[in-house]
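Weekly structure sync, notes
Attendees: PL, DS, HV (note-taker this week)

Item 1: Disulphide bond corrector protein DsbC
DS walked through the input record. Source organism listed as Tropicimonas isoalkanivorans. Sequence as pasted into the shared doc:
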Amino acid sequence: MTRTRSLSAPAALFVALVAMLVPDAVRAGSGPPSSVVTGEVLEGWTTESGNRMAALRLQLAPGWKTYWRAPGDTGVPPNFSWKGSQNLRGVIYHWPSPDIFSVNGLRTVGYKHELVLPIELVPQTPGAPIHLRGAMDLGVCETVCMPANLTFRADMTGSGQSDPRIHQALASRPLPSGRAGVSDVDCAVEPISDGVQLQATITMPGLGGEEIALVETNDPRIWVSEPVTQRSGRTLRVMADLVPPSGKPLAVDRGGLRFTVVGASQAVDIQGCSVN
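Item 1 (cont.): predicted structure, written out as tokens:
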């Protein structure tokens, strides 16, 4: 497998791309103009569990895109802060299936035009109002790439109401492995000079068209190379290098591995595997 080790620090690479591609007039400002990306809170409804199903709605200018939670080699993952919120114990993110982009031979993963990201708000006191205060750091790209920051504010009282935009985003999430017919996931790892090579064998029906597998670990410091995917009948083989900051072979947490397989019309979410 061919690897470019300089990509082991995607955030640094993104900064370098920004420095090369963003005009001086943009770099001198506080961020991209509001015409590039805007955000709002969709307040949603209270679920039977007592949580609040809301969403962040990002609108992007024509031709612009932003990134998924695992953005690929040349992107940076979005980062959220909920400091200042009241009656908020936790936030669960329900990511819709992403698009795959290839530019100059580099793969990135994300969304164009619009992203509705459902966020399930877990209150400290169910039934009481949730005062949401949030900030999101993200990257946006067209022919240039630049960092952006959005702030969110919403005061949610009562039970709210159903929102078709949130329902549509929830329906577009990758299918869980059980519903997608995944019957087995085996993983083998071999040491390499600066980490390990992961070889996963997934038994599952084909998704149609070109299938692309995305690999995540439960440690965001571990760099994951662009996976190589091969299909043979009901068997999908996925190979990727995992490189930790230490640059040394590491023990792989099998429960912390996550695979997202994206096909022509569907994506599948697979969490955990057996490691040989």
